[in-house]
């Protein structure tokens, strides 16, 4: 199979109705009300009959030789090329899932060291996508309804809250981290099965990496010029998908070295449900939203605010191309209906035109990216590549 399956919202979510119905009916069996009644029921007369407690013994875990190995896996090892196809087919066929990601990263180089930690929960359900990302003391939550191709975002830091509307919401493929899993499976070299562990669907078999099979494949998941180390453990569910993968990697990018300690867990495959958060209506009304397009024969970006609360003038604009990056504060408060033209001078200075393309604008080239960030809080109000 070539590139990852592009399971669009409609094609993927259409498969969930039956799976969800089975999951819900299973959860409802033996409801809470009947359990409460049996617990509180009293008899008028004492009984002398002895009560026998029926105990059930859980089936023992299968041995490595007894495990039900999905296609692409065996006791002798894991074929990353083939098993990725199995994983992709299972995930896309299930239609819904929850993915937890935890990553600790250390960047070092040029005499400086920077540490970064991110925790994410990504949920894909029949009604939409919900992502919660925590980085430092900032929590960002994205809600993308199935019926709309936008992302409503709440940004929080302590008691400060702000909202934005992204012109495009997360895709199901992004939620399922298919590109990354493909890179890990096909880029790593995997040894024999080591043990059987329990998972939410029954049991999973564990494999450990023995090295790097393809640096090029790993670079799909870990963007870097070179990857020096990849030490990973993977759990493969008997249901045919990656239950968990954790790894430590070291990579080089220019003069910097990245050390990453990451764990990705797949849960509630085929059984995830999401609902619109209570703040969704507030985000629709107050969330800042912008339209951006190339203007001036490729020398500028036309930016217009089309929704949301006014942005204060301390917000910072940035325009990046393949050759340069310029940044400066807004020239004034920015309100719905206001327009700006952003350009770069020959020496990379950000030029802002309030009545059209500013003088001295140079060609942007094939790539341009616009970012607007708060000047007083670590909130990102807008980012778009053109």
What's the arrangement of strands in the largest beta sheet?
Answer: 8-7-6-5-4-3-13-12-11-10-9
For the sheet with most strands, the description reads: 11 strands, antiparallel
What general form does the structure show? Answer: globular
Going by CATH, the architecture of the largest domain would be Clam
Q: What attributes characterize this protein structure?
A:
single chain, 386 residues, alpha+beta, outer membrane lipoprotein receptor (LolB), chain A, 2 domains, eleven-stranded antiparallel sheet, 44% strand
Plain-language structure description:
This protein has 386 residues and is α+β, with helices and mostly antiparallel strands. The protein folds into two domains: 73-267, outer membrane lipoprotein receptor (LolB), chain A (Clam); 288-385, Immunoglobulin-like, CATH 2.60.40. Helices cover 18% and strands 44% of the residues. The strands form four sheets. The protein has an eleven-stranded antiparallel beta sheet, sandwiched between helices. It has a four-stranded antiparallel beta sheet with strand order 14-15-18-19, with no helix packed on it. Helix 6 (178-187) runs antiparallel to helix 7. The radius of gyration is 26 Å and the shape is globular. The relative contact order is 0.13. Mean pLDDT is 86; it is low at 9-53.
Please give the structural blueprint.
Layout: H1 9-13, H2 16-28, H3 32-40, E1 73-74, E2 77-78, H4 80-94, E3 97-109, E4 112-125, E5 128-135, E6 138-145, E7 151-157, E8 160-166, H5 172-175, H6 178-187, E9 188-199, E10 202-212, H7 215-221, E11 226-237, E12 242-253, E13 256-267, H8 280-286, E14 289-295, E15 300-307, E16 316-321, E17 325-329, E18 339-344, E19 350-353, E20 368-373, E21 380-385
Antiparallel strand pairs: 1-2, 3-4, 3-13, 4-5, 5-6, 6-7, 7-8, 9-10, 10-11, 11-12, 12-13, 14-15, 15-18, 16-17, 16-20, 18-19, 20-21
């Amino acid at each position: 199979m070539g590139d990852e399956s592009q399971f669009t919202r409609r094609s993927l979510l259409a498969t969930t109705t039956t799976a969800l119905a089975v999951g819900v009916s299973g959860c409802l069996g033996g409801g809470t009300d009947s359990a409460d009644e049996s617990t509180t029921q009293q008899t008028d007369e004492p009984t002398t009959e002895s009560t026998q407690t029926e105990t059930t013994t859980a089936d023992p875990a299968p041995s490595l030789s007894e495990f039900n190995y999905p296609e692409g896996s065996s006791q002798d090892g894991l074929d990353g090329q083939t098993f990725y196809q199995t994983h992709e087919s299972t995930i896309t066929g299930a239609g819904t899932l929850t993915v937890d990601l935890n990553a600790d990263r250390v960047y070092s180089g040029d005499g400086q060291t920077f540490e970064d930690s991110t925790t994410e929960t990504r949920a894909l359900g029949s009604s939409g996508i919900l992502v919660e990302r925590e980085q430092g003391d900032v929590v960002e939550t994205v809600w993308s309804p199935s019926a709309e191709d936008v992302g409503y975002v709440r940004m929080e830091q302590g008691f400060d809250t702000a909202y934005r509307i992204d012109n495009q919401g997360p895709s199901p493929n992004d939620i399922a981290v298919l590109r990354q899993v493909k890179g890990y499976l096909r880029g790593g070299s995997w040894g024999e099965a080591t043990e059987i562990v329990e998972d939410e669907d029954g049991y999973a078999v564990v494999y450990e990496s023995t090295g790097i099979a393809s640096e090029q494949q790993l670079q799909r998941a870990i963007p870097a010029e070179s990857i020096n180390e990849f030490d990973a453990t993977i759990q493969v569910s008997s249901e045919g998908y990656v239950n968990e993968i954790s790894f430590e990697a070291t990579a080089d990018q220019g003069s910097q070295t990245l050390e990453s300690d990451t764990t990705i867990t797949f849960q509630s495959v085929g059984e995830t449900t999401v609902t619109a958060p209570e703040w969704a209506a507030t985000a629709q009304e107050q969330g800042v939203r912008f339209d951006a397009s190339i203007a001036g024969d490729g020398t500028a970006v036309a930016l217009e605010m089309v929704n949301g609360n006014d942005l204060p003038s301390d917000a910072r604009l940035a325009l990046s191309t393949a050759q340069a990056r310029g940044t400066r504060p807004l020239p004034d408060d920015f309100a719905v209906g206001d327009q700006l033209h952003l350009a770069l001078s020959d020496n990379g200075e950000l030029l802002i035109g309030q009545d059209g393309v500013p003088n001295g604008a140079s060609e942007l080239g094939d790539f341009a990216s616009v970012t607007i960030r708060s000047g007083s809080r670590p909130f990102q109000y807008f980012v778009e590549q053109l």
